[in-house]
Design brief:
DNA-bd_dom_put_sf, DNA-binding transcription factor activity, alpha+beta, MerR family DNA-binding transcriptional regulator, 8-stranded antiparallel β-sheet, elongated, Multidrug-efflux Transporter 1 Regulator Bmrr, Chain A, 2 domains, Multidrug-efflux Transporter Regulator, Chain: A, Domain 2, two-stranded antiparallel sheet, DNA-binding, 6 helices
Length: 261
């Protein structure tokens, strides 16, 4: 007769591995956890101490998105498990998660910087951006900002950026260039890098003394005309802003232009 005292009950396995008994029962139900022994008298399942690292790996992989059904691919004959493959899969999932976490942290940092910038602009009439280093891909566009045509064009531009393998950097707006006594308008999407690219026109803000202020979309035309006439400014960038509270249907706008020394 088998001496079950040398084995672990499901409760003991749960306590030693830190995995709930419901999860362990589910692992057995889908065929990726097999008990070492089953008591024929009462049907109780018993497990060996070797099951502890195995079920811990199952939970870890599940936590990082590896489908539990894939564990059947690592089960060999005679109750053997291909631990090398499991560890390789777990490492790959963790590396992918770490990469996504870094990306998410960078995104949150940039949103936080936009919130701070918006607050600074709100509290000062004359706000200057020093040593900016931003690059915007330009696309032909003629229309009102924040309109349905504007956002339709945004979607087309995002697809085009993807086609040319440029990473969108979560800021959009319009660029206005004063040429031959008229303003030429472009859709402007911030990208992470545009060095040595000739497939699209770009504007790069890598100069000092860029003035920034908030502006309402109804005031854009008059404001640009006034600044061009009075200060002879010929390049303007108007961006949607991220601020608190954030208005989903009518985001605020930020006007930028270069101050000539």
């Amino acid at each position: 007769m088998t001496n079950f005292q040398h084995f672990l009950t499901i409760g003991q396995l749960s306590k030693l591995s830190g995995i709930h008994t419901k999860a362990l029962r589910y692992y057995e139900q889908i065929g990726i956890l097999k008990p070492s022994q089953v008591n024929p008298d009462n049907g109780y399942r018993y497990y060996s101490h070797s099951h502890i690292p195995y079920v811990s790996l199952i939970k870890m992989c599940a936590d990082y998105g590896l489908p539990l059904k894939d564990f059947t691919n690592y089960m060999l004959a005679d109750d053997q498990i291909d631990m090398v493959k499991i560890i390789q899969e777990a490492q790959a999932k963790i590396l992918a998660t770490e990469k996504q976490v870094r990306k998410d942290k960078d995104y949150l940092h940039k949103l936080q910087q936009q919130l701070l910038l918006s607050q600074q602009i709100d509290h000062r009439q004359q706000f200057h951006l020093d040593e900016t280093n931003e690059c915007y891909a330009l696309f032909p566009f003629k229309g009102q900002m924040l309109s349905s045509d504007y956002y339709n064009q945004v979607r087309h531009c995002l697809l085009e950026l993807d086609d040319v393998q440029l990473d969108y950097d979560n800021r959009i707006g319009c660029y206005y260039a004063y040429q031959e006594e008229n303003f030429k308008q472009y859709m402007a999407l911030k990208v992470k890098e545009c060095l040595d690219r000739t497939d699209l026109p770009f504007i790069c803000l890598n100069q000092q003394h860029i003035h920034a202020e908030h502006i309402h979309q109804d005031d854009i035309a008059d404001k640009l005309q006034t600044l061009q006439a009075e200060k002879e400014i010929i390049d303007f960038l108007i961006l949607e802003t991220f601020e608190n509270p954030y208005h989903l249907s009518q985001p605020h706008l930020e006007l930028r232009y270069l101050i000539n020394d």
